[in-house]
Amino acid sequence: MDSVVDHVVQHLDPNPSPPLFVAIQGPQGSGKSYLSAQLKENLSQLPYSLNVALLSIDDLYLPHDGLIALATEQPLNPLWAGRGHPGTHDVKLGVDILRKLQSHSQGVELPSFEKSLFNGEGDRLPTGVVINPPVDVVILEGWCVGFFPISEEELSKRWDGVWREEAARLGLPSNIMKNDVLRVNEVLKRYVEMWSFFDLFIQLKPAPIGTFPSQYSIVYRWRLEQELYMKSTNGGRGMSDEAVKAFVDRYIPGYVFFGDIPAVSAQPRWIGKGMKLLIDEERRQLGVEKF
């Protein structure tokens, strides 16, 4: 945590106007929400005493009826069968919130999405958290934060190469078509406006684990642990173990096609100010890389 706090503080203007925007990305269950909350807590206390706005991209999901409408409109695309992939978020709302925080608007409401509702399908709550200026630091965390669209040529290359390999290793269902990924890739173009706000990027990256067949295998365990913990605190509301497996299956294409954040060709403003935290299967930090 000290290295993350130091990374943020060294890029903080003594009189931040606009705020410093920090993006945090990592796979499901990797600890990015915990890291984000701890970062906010550390920066809010002495010696920094900063006003920090924390938003998860999960809180930008479409309301439940919007998710159902999307799945109904695109019945043949399993990537939009539920929340998760780009296309299931209200990007306009996200940009509007970030712009208001940037300009120190009064009374900015940060939405809240409750994942346990509708048997784990989730829904946006009617009210969120209101934050008032001046805001010093804005944190946005999420599994697909910083995902950029790629060229159709690159997508085809990954489809015929790494995607087929990972799908075989993980035993993924064969209902995902190349056109499904192409549609998500097209929608990602709208997300670039959100990413353009961010000055710093922090990525949680699982180190290679030799006992697992795929670099993404650990995500299944982490996400199940996350769901079981949530159910232990809310009276058992949430997804079954089988539903969690199917849920993660649907996310894997996102990691394969768009997850190599430091390698993107778009050259976002955080290049040169990125930090990658390598973690083991117990989420212990093994090392730090800059990009």
UniProtKB/TrEMBL annotation:
Protein name, as recorded: P-loop containing nucleoside triphosphate hydrolase protein
Organism this protein belongs to: Asterophora parasitica
